[in-house]
């Protein structure tokens, strides 16, 4: 807006004074500056203030005194005396009229027919008419803006163009907006002012008189602005207006710039504001705001912003390059000035003239880059890389010359200097077009030679492990093996941006590297000199030898070329020095990918033509050396040679290697390769759970290693990821345990395993000493308890003897659970061997970890009720381990799946059972056998029956819920505290977990069947037994009579426990099936079926009273069928049938029969041996129980 060049804008000083209402500052303003702020000051002085304080009263007097000498105040006072309500009504009518007749209508309600032009009318008019003239003109512009659909136009208006009346028109505009804010929203007014001459000046005055609206106006203008402002006249005018606003309020300029980025509009404004801010900055050696801003746009994570600004750069280059007024040109000029400001002494890259023949030709005078300029130089290099690689900037000859001088400068030996050299080198690779002349090429070669010579010096002096020597070596190897894509990835990774680099652009650099700088001999000699990074951690940034190793292993270049055989061995050794010896926390992020690619290099050949070109896995002895001191348990605190970080990394390697080996078994079998697998003996010696527990406390330092280990553990060792163990571990490592360990005394620490063994040997006669030692051991941590594990488990068998106090059993159980958090696998093997019967011990049969994974049921060969919790815990773990073992075995022998498919090409035959199906069948049989054994344990033994008959009746107590409570309640409560009851509760908990984990086990177990005496216990004690309702119809449909009886008995308990609509439908089905079987069964089968199932009908009636009619009809039908079978016998059945009909028709009259002791005993006295007679008597007894239950309201 060049038309505003001669006008006076509001100064930042004046705007700040208005914003803060600083009367002292306002009084210091000159008359021209004060004149621009009169509309607001006059309104401030005349309007009733909201602030009634004494200080404001004094300030108001100062304002009045300030205004008293200004002549223009009178005209503003006259403007404020107008009836604005009537004016607003007329304005609303005019808007409606224009909307009705169209925007081009010349009629106006605010202004009658004009005799002269707007300027003369404005001059001759009084205050009310001036307000109407300006309002009418402003509404016309605003109306046209709303109808323009975003197309910019420039409205010619005498009121806003005449320099004589600009100030008066501005006064009227400010008063109108202040008094009619609903009619004239300030954002809409600001948008309209962009379409008139001197609009930026009017806009600044308007905002200065309403300083609180600054951010609102700026955001509105930006939101309505163009995405590319320099492409149109409207965009440039909008940018210029906002730039004037920010000059008036420079403290908000950066906030406005943030709005520009947020809306992705007006990129030129963002750059212009940054340029204005940079000029006002104090010149220092730091990175300028312009570099930071543009770098943030192009290198940030927001792709939308990156594309938006890149379009601005590309479009700006398409216009004339000599357009000095262009914001892009100003930005490039400023960046070039900053670049030249930090360059060392000017160097000539041209051939010396003939007059200087005495000097060495083609040698430039080098001067090192100053240390305070290195960081800024690195930032500028990355910015130019982003501008050229992402935004498509094409550098001028001057820019290319200065960039090359900066890139080939020699920084000091500091960490920032190392970073600068790496960036310069990658920029040379990415933008080889910067080197266009032979002189520039020679300069680059000399600089690269200097890098090779000085990289060791830089590393030693700078004190950092990161160096550019590894990068040079890696790039040279890639050039020799023609892996240009790997070089491109390396360059993008180092620069920190994804840019497009054509492989053809690297051809010249390849020639220079392979023939002039890095010949094969130089590469080999340099590779051996690359040092190992000591104490490698995430704190060491930059390009390290580990990056070289990772890239080499990933690209597999060393296996394709004989040149790199020597380098391979050296780097492989370095790799394990990194992972085994020289690693500390926080973990370097490149270590896990390094191990992954190393494993891949072991399993996958580099090429099909050379399948033997693979690395070798680490030997078992090397792995055991890492864990030396942890595998044994003799010393409480063994001396560890390697750190916990190293041990965790080796554990990750072993688990990942085994998983990858199993995953690639079929591929390896097809290639007839079988890499070595680590033995189970090695895995048994690695304290996996202990290491995982240590890693849990170091999650922040280990990065993603802990989660990666948990994933591998859950896949390959599910028995070490039992949820109960994690919960128990939280309790052990919680606050309560920490407080208990504060009570740890010196006496407790001095108890040795030998003393614990002596206390166990005194157990039959002396319990006190053992109890005292065990209590002291509970105060120790899990790691400190490891030396006591063998003594504790070996003496568990003697705890099964009678007379051992329960307190000792509970304490041993607690100590076992603590040890289970650090050494579960070894602890389980020792416990299983210790709890074997004495006959086994005589034979000296010791089970191994492998034996127990193959046959988990070995755990249940000894029934030890006091320690059943431990037994069940081990059983659950070994069942999970067995599944993982069989899955791994199936993958290991995958080649057996390939051979049958090759042999069965003879023709279509019956499909064989797959090995996967056989494995699933074996697992199902194994789980069901474990369930059956556990259910069998729930039955009382003959000794337990003899000792306490009430204990055995406990199983029936749940079933007989309809019977009144007996008088001997205390005796029944005593039975609940027996060992059998505890064992039953523990087993039911485990079965519930197994059923939930695999519902198919429930179906399999119940199709197999188990003693009906346990139904009351399983239904009441296992919450997941409701699953049985899904398959009971299928079980009833089985042809075997025993399964049908078992299904109906099971259903009777389920109906009582789960009185659901589904249970009702299954019960109806069972009644219908019983009625059907009544008509088809023979006499012997009818007796065998109905005698055990008739009592179940009582439970059906109790759970679902609507079934009463159907059940009574079934019972009468059963009695009639039995009577018909013995009709030829001498005994008359008619009285019994008659009595049954009476019981059905008049239950209330005979409800007391069951209370009649003589009748009751008579009816249930089965004296006859005839099955039909016994069945009829059972039917009668069932009917009486149902009637009594319904009448008594149970």
Automatic annotation (TrEMBL):
Transmembrane intervals: none
Keyword terms, alphabetized: Nucleus
Subcellular location: Nucleus
The protein, known as: Integrator complex subunit 2
Gene Ontology cellular-component annotations: integrator complex
Family named by the database record: Belongs to the Integrator subunit 2 family.
GO biological process, one term: snRNA 3'-end processing
